Amino acid sequence: MRHAIALTVVFAGIWLLWSGHLEALLLSLGALSCIVAVALAARMRILDDEGVPFALAGRAARYLPWLLLQIVKANIDVARRILNPRLPVAPRLIRVHARQQSAVGRALFANSITLTPGTVSVDVDGETIVVHALTAEAGNDVLAGEMNRRVVWVEQGS
Amino acid sequence: MTLQLVWDLLSWGCLLLGSAFAITGGIGLLRLPDFYARMHGGGITDTMGAGLILLGLGFQAGVSLVGAKLLLILVFLLITSPTTAHALAKAALADGVEPFVSDDPGKAGVP
After folding, report:
1. Which positions in chain B touch A117 (Cβ < 8 Å)?
2. How much is the pTM?
3. Which of helix, strand or coil describes residue A131?
4. Using one digit for the tens of pLDDT, what is the confidence trace for B71-100?
5. Stretch 32-91 of chain B: residues touching chain A, C-beta under 8 Å
6. Which of A6, A29, A146, B14 is the most exposed place for a label (fewest CB within 10 A)?
7. B16 vs A41: CA distance, rounded Å
8. Residue (of A55, A46, A146, A148) closest to A106 by Cα position
């Protein structure tokens, strides 16, 4: 029930933002579509901590600025390598042990790796994430484990 | 009046820098040695390119409904772009595309 209410509130907020209309007819249609969407989610049995991970929202919001900084730094590094006439890249596959306990935590970690240019999560096998790294440095950054540790911290917030 | 000028300069700075990153991503797509390496070029266009262009458009829109929508588009992009990148890479691996691996940065351009 907690998840259904949280999801309805978020849907209503997004609906209002997209439409910007406040007439009674449109508002009631919007409310109806929010309720139908939540009912469908309930029928699909995805109204749980995994499908509606709002408990993590607070810590995720504090993780986001650090992630954005890493994305900007990695972007500048990869852009310089692409524009360098010698093209100094050394692609490799590495295996990273994801220390998160939940599926949501591992998904957040794998997606953070992919969002950072220079590393892409190729495959997830249990607790091991196979990562394609464009350079040795990018691969070593993932293996060093700071992002791993920070995502564990986000996950423990729930 | 001057505030408007500062706002416009910020906006155009973001738009031009974002475009430069988007083009760099495209160049990477062409120059990098194999399928997996090329995905990193696409990653630049997805994050810095799209991010800075949306930020620049946000400065044009100011604090308004349109500005909030642009911000939300950015949030959704941060969720959808790694999902598609992962799906592409996993499909390639499942289909048996061998990643080109190199320890020598100097020779990386020639697979």
Report:
1. 40, 43-44, 47-48
2. 0.87
3. strand
4. 899 988 988 999 999 999 999 988 988 888
5. 32-34, 36-37, 39-41, 43-44, 47-48, 65, 68-69, 72, 78-79, 81-83, 85-86, 89-90
6. A146
7. 41
8. A148
In terms of Cα–Cα distance, which of B37, B14, B11 is closest to B25? Answer: B37
Q: What is the ipTM of this complex?
A: 0.85
Helices A57-83 and B2-31: angle between axes, nearest 10 degrees: 60
Task: Report domain extents, chain A.
Answer: 2-43, 58-155
Q: What are the structure tokens assigned to B34, written together?
A: 């194999």
Amino acid residing at B20:
A
| DSSP states of B32-46 | SSSHHHHHHHHHHII
Q: pLDDT tens digits for A94-118?
A: 999 999 998 889 999 999 999 999 9
Structure tokens at A11: 């849907």
